[in-house]
Design goal:
Rossmann fold, 2 domains, six-stranded parallel sheet, binds NADPH dihydro-nicotinamide-adenine-dinucleotide phosphate
Length: about 290
Amino acid sequence: MNLSDTPAQLLDGKALSERILNSLKEKVEAKHNAGMPAPGLATILVGNDPASHIYVRNKRRACEKVGITNIHHELDEHVGQAALLKLIQELNDSPEVHGILVQLPLPKNCDYNENEVLAAIDPAKDADGFHPFNQGALMQGRKAPVPCTPKGIMCLLDECGLDLKGRHAVVVGRSNIVGKPISLLLLERHLTVTICHSRTRDLAAEVNRADIVVAAVGVAELVRGDWIKPGAVVLDVGINRNEEGKLVGDVEFRAAAQRAAWITPVPGGVGPMTIAMLLQNTFEAYNA
Ligand code: NDP
């Protein structure tokens, strides 16, 4: 598809994330030149989920690019929760580790409890911002590590240079990792926020009222282009394969781009920002 034939301006997450990573690289180099140790991000991957392997590989490559030391652990899916918690405790205690990431989802066929695993991470090293303490801090508007995808979405939204106060945002999806935290961040910036989900009665009508649409559903092109209010900003979090096997978002991109003022592509929109924010969270934990 030729993206240049869309009237909406593209919110280019790939280019923005590269700028952020380059800036982080300079800051890490400055620490190194001042004789300080490198920041360290520990990544833990349990099991053989192919998508998780790709996500972790991309995160590790970004660490290498920026000069953040990556301490990587791959565990067999049958290793069990006790061994995983023991490893997390060791990383919590390690002075070389400033951020810890446990790649989700954990294998379903074993007895892992994701909430217990996330709660075992030292909140000060919680690079993903999923610890209940940090999620509570976000709800109270206190400074704490913010989940990477919502944080990246806010950076993209700021690229539009709009005065956000009082505008109407509609978030489709209410997960703990995207929908709920992005709703809180938008509220913090004084938008009026509507959260939609699978039981929402008239999704099209809700989306049609939005100045800002965040789609975080996981259903290919669920949000139709003709639902978009002319001039809206559309931030598409979804990563899906359509029937032809092509990577698409949760928004019908081509039609939505005919009405939106700004829109993120998939791929190359929100996805790369998630990785940049992970490294930014790690660097912020290192500086704290
Ligand atoms: P979840 O599956 O945890 O949540 C999906 C949400 O969508 C739920 O709240 C669900 O509602 C809602 N939903 C499902 N079907 C409908 C529907 N027909 N109408 C309205 N709402 C619906 O997903 P995540 O938040 O983890 O991820 C969402 C998408 O974003 C996925 O495609 C994922 O791959 C992608 N993603 C991308 C990232 C990136 O870096 N770009 C990072 C994280 C996720 P209910 O609560 O009622 O079930």
